[in-house]
Amino acid sequence: GGSRKSNSKGSDSHTRPDGRPTLPSQPLPKTDDVPINFDAYDDIPVEASGEECPAPIEQFSDVTMHPQLAKNIDVAKFVKPTPVQRHAIPIGMAKRDLMACAQTGSGKTGAFLFPTLNQMLMEADELGDTATVEHGRAHPRCLVLAPTRELATQIYKECQKFSNASRIQPVVVYGGADMRHQMQSLDRGCHVLVATPGRLCDLIERGKISLG
């Protein structure tokens, strides 16, 4: 989570010791989010159930996290996990099934995004130089379903924020918008797809997305 100087203006990337380039940091997408008062969450009770449920964490550093994700969390000024994140992150990191219920603004998006992005970053070699697109069809590695356009857009922006300066390419698709533009985004590659159900079905029927 430490700071690191970005590239000079004329440089496109750094080179790692193994000779492969790393992507430069990009400006974080602008959001209208109000800074979170993390201390206000300390007294919120949480109930967790399940067999041998992983113990909750107190700090993000309590779990093994990819350096780029840790840096993005730090840049976003996420000081410590919210209650739902304390319980959900270690469960997600353990690759366990999870169902969580919490109020709006409690950090649910980060609760499932952080373990997902972390796993993808840890397996960065499998991502390759570009996202998987075969025969004009996108093959996302992660699918996030959202009931409304507004929520899908919000999740997409969070995914952009926390996958910043990585090879992960998020794409959002929803109804009521130009489908051609969304298909062009898919053609450029898609690791994380955030979608509303109706538009997802439309694009699957058109052969633009494969979940197989």
Structural overview:
The chain is α/β, with parallel strands linked by helices and 212 residues long. Among the domains are: 53-122, no CATH class; 129-205, Rossmann fold, CATH 3.40.50. The chain is built from seven helices and seven strands. The chain has helices at 67-75, 83-93, 108-122, 124-127, 149-162, 179-187, 197-205, and strands at 14-15, 21-22, 133-134, 137-138, 142-145, 170-173, 192-195. Strands 5-7-6 form a three-stranded parallel beta sheet, with helices on both faces. Helix 2 packs parallel to helix 3 (108-122) and helix 3 (108-122) packs across helix 5. The longest helix has 15 residues, at 108-122. The radius of gyration is 18 Å and the shape is globular.
Give the topology:
Blueprint lengths: L13 E2 L5 E2 L44 H9 L7 H11 L14 H15 L1 H4 L5 E2 L2 E2 L3 E4 L3 H14 L7 E4 L5 H9 L4 E4 L1 H9 L7
Parallel strand pairs: 5-7, 6-7
Antiparallel strand pairs: 1-2, 3-4
GO molecular function, one term: RNA helicase activity
Protein name: RNA helicase
Keywords: ATP-binding, Helicase, Hydrolase, Nucleotide-binding
**What series of H and E elements makes up the topology?**
EEHHHHEEEHEHEH
What is the rounded Rg? 18 Å
Indicate the percent of residues in helices: 25-40%
Full CATH superfamily name of one domain: P-loop containing nucleotide triphosphate hydrolases
Structural category is alpha/beta
Shape: globular
Distance between the termini: 35 Å
Strand order of the largest sheet: 5-7-6
Strand portion: 5-15%
- Uncertain stretches: 1-18
Largest sheet at a glance?
3 strands, parallel
Instruction: Report the total helices.
Output: 7
Oligomer state equals single chain
Number of strands: 7
CATH C-level label of one domain:
Alpha Beta
